[in-house]
Amino acid sequence: MSFFEKLKTGLNKTRAVLTKNLDNLVFGKRVLDKELFDELEELLISADMGPQFTYDLIDDVKQRIGRDELRNAQEIKKVLQERMTDILQKVEKPLEIPRGKPFIIMTIGVNGSGKTTTIGKLASMLKSEGYEVMLVAADTFRAAAIEQLEVWGSRVGAPVVRQKANSDPAAVVFDAMVKIKTGFSGVVIVDTAGRLHTRVNLMEELKKIKRIINKELPELSPEILLILDATVGQNAVFQAKTFKEEIGVTGIILTKLDGSSKGGVVVRIASELALPVRYIGVGEGLDDLRVFESVDFTRALLN
Ligand SMILES: Nc1nc2c(ncn2[C@@H]2O[C@H](COP(=O)(O)OP(=O)(O)O)[C@@H](O)[C@H]2O)c(=O)[nH]1
Ligand SMILES: [Mg+2]
Predict the structure, then answer these.
(1) For residue range 213-222, what is the model confidence (pLDDT) as tens digits?
(2) What is the tens place of the pLDDT at every residue in 73-109?
(3) CATH code at 294?
(4) In angstroms, what is the span from residue 91 Cα to ligand 1's centroid?
(5) How far does residue 111's CA lie from ligand 2's centre (Å)?
(6) Whole-structure pTM over 0.90, yes or no?
(7) What domain count does the chain have?
């Protein structure tokens, strides 16, 4: 199956609900009235697109009706497609990784969102593009997390900087910074914990890791990549807001789009957070990560 087919199949549930309800909604409707707008609102909200996108879209529809540009309900589908493409295009900003000098990617995100797996996939992609890659096991909270990263490291042929379980993650990151200072000039991808004893602990730990990177290598601007699980819907939006406020986020990867009935949440994340969506994940395999493309995504979601 091609990547696009996987994405499309993965979004089957989202698309089915969205298009079926939309077709039902507009079918045979002649009057464009309040009842129709209420139904449209409910539909978009239940598809996880969020209040902002929903109200903007309804406003747009009303204005077009006012200008006589929209005369039947069928045309609402076109407006939806246009607005969706618009929003998603704005966040289609692929990560640009320089060649011949070091680049640091720090991944963050809640437990189970797919950080370690995504690091493996990303490392594989970058290696195939000719980058040197080094992985950093800064999720020291669980021994299994370090081993999981090592498995990916050996699969893709990337060295892993590690210490023993429960050691200070900032110390592991410091070791990796020393490797850069002593000549490593590839991509360094830092894995971090998604859960500690408390949320405050976790945020403090992540801030500390970021501080170490900035202090040791102030001339580099690291990519702070937030990994979000698309199957959790709205919750992904709240996670993104929290991490953005507390740590600062420079890019997003959405995972698990191969099994999500809540794919519409991408639209909400794009419209409310305006953070670049770098890649999307559609499976657990090495090749299941791709650069985010708004046109493909809209197609997979709507047709
Ligand atoms: N179906 C699917 N599963 C994924 C994807 N990305 C990660 N996973 C799975 O999600 C689970 C948690 O992933 P993991 O990388 O350990 O998450 P972490 O706790 O954030 O490091 C694992 O079983 C992964 O195989 C994806 O794009 N699609
Ligand atoms: Mg992990």
Answers:
(1) 999 999 999 9
(2) 888 888 999 999 999 999 999 999 999 999 999 999 9
(3) 3.40.50.300
(4) 23
(5) 7
(6) yes
(7) 1
Candidate of 284, 286, 288, 290 to mutate for ligand 1, largest count of ligand atoms within 8 Å of Cβ: 284
Residue 51's domain spans which residues? 1-303
Question: Could you write out the three-class secondary structure of the chain?
Answer: CCHHHHHHHHCHHHHHHHHHHHHHHHCCCCCCCHHHHHHHHHHHHHCCCCHHHHHHHHHHHHHHHHCCCCCCCCHHHHHHHHHHHHHHHHCECCCCCCCCCCEEEEEECCCCCCHHHHHHHHHHHHHHCCCCEEEEEECCCCHHHHHHHHHHHHHHCCCEECCCCCCCHHHHHHHHHHHHHCCCCCEEEEEECCCCCCHHHHHHHHHHHHHHHHHHCCCCCCEEEEEEEHHHCHHHHHHHHHHHHHCCCCEEEEECCCCCCCCCHHHHHHHHHCCCEEEEECCCCCCCEEECCHHHHHHHHHC
Instruction: Report, as an integer, the average pLDDT of 202-220.
Output: 97
pLDDT in tens, 119-131: 999 999 999 999 9
